[in-house]
Specification:
By secondary structure, the protein is an alpha+beta fold. Among the domains are: about 180 residues, 3-Layer(aba) Sandwich (Rossmann fold); about 120 residues, no CATH class. It contains 13 helices and 43 strands. The strands form nine sheets. Strands 3, 4, 6, 7, 11, 14, 15, 16 and 17 form a nine-stranded mixed beta sheet that branches. Strand 22 and strand 23 form a beta hairpin.
């Protein structure tokens, strides 16, 4: 249980991924929207760029330390054929998804949260009827995916996403961030059009005039609110709203109490100014993966991350550089003082790194935690990798135990932060390493800046004002299910935000206990916990989102259980949160979802005018991407498009879920495949195809490579090809599943 209570420990001290603009991923060129009649010829598809963003408007309201985002995006299909697409939207840490609306017949329509399997089944049934649903699914790591169909030629789709997040404090200001999509996005999506970003809030004595280090601002007063409008289209938008610092430690609470159950509390703890004058020396260890898969762009990212880290060092800091592939190497045997000479030498060491060999995560972890932790110093480990272990001990529980043991030694506790590059990383392993190491994990797409993320962590984990912090209440009020789990840390110029349930009501003393410089410190404040307060319902969603993250981390470590799954499902459905087990489905108003059918399986009720569509029930969807549920599909799609344009005979490689594939004559072939191997060939998007995925869901990301794939199991192979089986004979599927 001890390890379970650490899952969100430091999240409140670090800003996660920036709130970022969503992007459209069209279905791979060559895969039809659907095939209504198997006897009819497959439709032709326009492979030229055909989907363009025409407008992006972001409106942010600041109230009571919470940012309420409303993101409105418009896309148009400039092609000559019907298109099908996914809208991907990254949510920041500490955020609560509220809803997504999709324009259907000129109206914005919201949806509802339901069981993920039921939502997907309903969605695919509607798609076969060529209507306009949108299914928002949880993809992990702060990504939402809205499946959108269809985009008719010349049609414009409007999407509105709303979510809330706690406003992070940075020194004397509250920080508002947004990251606009790159103009060089997916190869068949054109980014352009106009954009706007507007921040508004009610003037208050403690809030100053906003300013921006990235943009010019137009400031105005409108309807009793202060409005800041961003000028220009630069990608990184940052606004800072000055906030008055308290003269002493401050404890504030924002409640939501519906009145018929335990209330919800958002507790913010701000350190006193005097505590910020103390400086804590740091021991920082940067671990870089230099295995063969890091060649090219990833190796450049790793070197840049190293140089970024060196630039954050202070004279009182010490550092280590560790690079690993099949073996482990170090810049120096022990910590080096951050002198100018050592920093220059370390920079030259980074420049000389080369990518080759396997991935020995075990040896790298053991070397990273080998030195004893020194009293009075803050030990940090930043671990950067692009894959999963292939050398040494590869058992996840053994690897996470190394991180947990390193974090639990007597004296100052070592924090471990992980950074995953690309889609081939072992996501669960990196998340668990961070949880056991009392840190956080972040995942970086190939076009993102890992050096920026490393720099953010290194810069913000500077001076711990209070460590081993615990929050409790004395009086007639009791806190429960608090997140982040305790003990936590408070760093200079950062607030600690705690979300919790509370029982009882009335005035109570909130007590914050912690340690600074080896001495015990206690801050207290009297806070009113109301019996009923319905003004801040987003506090409940914020708490529920954090709770889902906590439970998902536990599920990833210990495996699914009926109790865990039931609580995740309940939270998702009650608070409208997409999770591993629930999805948010938007449907056309004339469709009604009937939950009360026999067996509890959701299905649709259609008007009589639509009943003729029933004959299309057996039509095959032609979207391999619809089957994937991980970030790897995003990269594999672009790879498929690139491969389609490659010269005949050209060979390229892809890694998916630990397997390596080579593209040969238009087919992705598992490198473990050899002539004469027993092979079962299946027709793409046939009944047999979907039956295999139902039995072997781990192949979803592999099948997302394209319509021609050969993948190897234990002693046989599955090939996806046009001349394959359309349906399995009795017992054949069961036999394949057992042998796989």
């Amino acid at each position: 249980m001890r390890s379970l209570l650490r899952s969100l420990l430091i999240l409140a001290t670090i800003t996660g991924p920036l709130p970022a603009q969503g992007w459209i991923i069209p279905r791979p060129c060559g895969f039809g929207v659907m095939q209504i009649d198997r006897r009819a010829p497959r439709p032709a598809f326009d492979c030229r760029p055909n989907i363009a963003r025409t407008r992006s408007d972001v409106r942010v309201e600041l109230a009571a330390g919470v940012l309420r985002y409303e993101v409105e995006e418009r896309f148009v299909n400039h092609g000559s054929t019907v298109g099908e697409a996914d809208y991907i939207f990254p949510l920041p840490n500490h955020s609560a998804f509220q809803d997504l609306k999709l324009s259907i017949n000129g109206e914005l329509v919201s949806g509802e949260t339901m069981n993920a399997g039921d939502a997907r089944r309903i969605y695919e049934q509607i798609v076969r009827s060529q209507l306009d649903p949108a299914l928002v699914e949880w993809m992990g790591h702060g990504l939402l995916r809205a499946r959108i169909f269809p985009l008719n030629p010349g049609e414009e789709k409007q999407i509105v996403v709303r979510f809330q997040t706690v406003a992070p404090r940075e020194g004397d200001a509250l920080r508002v961030d947004y990251f606009r999509a790159a103009s060089n996005g997916p190869s068949n999506v054109r980014d352009g059009g106009s954009s706007s970003f507007v921040l508004s809030y009610k003037p208050a004595a403690e809030l100053g005039t906003p300013y921006s280090p990235t943009h010019a601002l137009d400031l105005s007063e409108r309807d009793g609110r202060r409005v800041a409008t961003v000028r220009g289209d630069a990608r990184d938008v940052t606004l800072l709203v000055p906030v008055r610092r308290p003269s002493a430690a401050a404890i504030t609470m924002l409640p939501y109490a519906p009145g018929n159950e335990d209330g919800f509390a958002l507790v913010t703890i701000t350190a006193p100014p005097a505590a910020r004058n103390e400086t804590t020396p740091r021991d920082i260890t940067l671990v870089l993966d230099v295995s063969g898969s890091m060649q090219g762009r990833k190796m450049e990212q790793a070197r840049a991350a190293g140089r970024q880290l060196l630039g954050t060092l202070r004279p009182t800091d010490r550092f280590r550089l560790i690079d690993f592939s099949s073996d482990v190497r170090t810049f120096k045997d022990d910590f080096a003082p951050a002198t100018p000479e050592n920093v220059r030498e370390a920079s030259r060491y980074l420049d000389a790194l080369e990518a080759q060999g396997g991935t020995n995560i075990e040896a790298a972890l053991r070397e990273a935690v080998r030195p004893a932790v020194s009293a009075g110093r803050l030990p940090l480990v930043l671990f950067v990798t692009d894959g999963e272990p292939t050398v040494g001990d590869q058992r996840p529980d053994h690897l996470t135990a190394i991180a947990g043991d390193a974090s639990d030694r007597t004296g100052p506790r070592r924090r471990i932060f992980t950074f995953g590059l690309g889609s081939d990383v072992n996501v669960t392993l990196l998340e668990q390493l961070a949880i056991e190491g009392r840190g956080t994990s972040q995942f970086v797409r190939p076009d993102e800046s890992v050096e920026r993320m490393v720099g953010v962590v290194a810069n913000r984990l500077v001076d711990p004002v209070l460590t081993d912090v615990r929050v409790r209440v004395e009086g007639d009020v009791r806190l429960s299910k608090a997140l982040p789990a305790q003990p936590a840390d408070i760093f200079a110029d950062r607030d600690l935000v705690v979300l919790a349930r509370y029982s009882g009501h009335g005035s109570a003393r909130v007590i914050v206990d912690g340690t600074r410089g080896g001495a015990s410190v206690q801050w207290t404040s009297t806070v009113e916990f109301p019996e009923r307060a319905r003004e801040n319902p987003f506090v409940a969603r914020l708490w529920a989102s954090q709770r889902v993250g906590f439970l998902s981390a536990e599920r990833g470590k210990a495996g699914a259980s009926s109790e865990l799954d039931e609580e995740i499902r309940m939270l998702g459905e009650r608070y409208g949160i997409p999770t591993e087990l629930t999805s948010y489905l938007v449907t056309e108003p004339r469709f009604a979802v009937n939950r009360g059918v026999a067996g509890g399986i959701a299905r649709m009720s259609m008007t009589a005018a639509d009943s003729r569509q029933a004959r299309f029930e057996q039509a095959k969807t032609a979207s391999a991407q619809r089957l994937a549920s991980s970030v790897s599909m995003l990269d594999s799609m672009s790879a498929s498009l690139t491969a389609a344009a490659a010269p005949a005979g050209a060979v390229s490689t892809r890694r998916v879920d630990g397997r390596t594939f080579e593209l040969r004559n238009g087919t992705w072939i598992d490198t473990r495949y050899h002539a004469g191997m027993q092979t079962i060939t299946i027709e793409p998007y046939s009944k047999a195809y979907f039956d295999v995925l139902a039995q072997l869901p781990e192949l979803r990301a592999v099948f997302a490579l394209g319509a021609k794939v050969t993948v190897v199991g234990r002693d046989r192979a599955i090939a996806i090809a046009d001349d394959g089986l359309a349906e399995f004979s009795a017992g054949a599927l069961s036999g394949l599943s057992k042998a796989w």
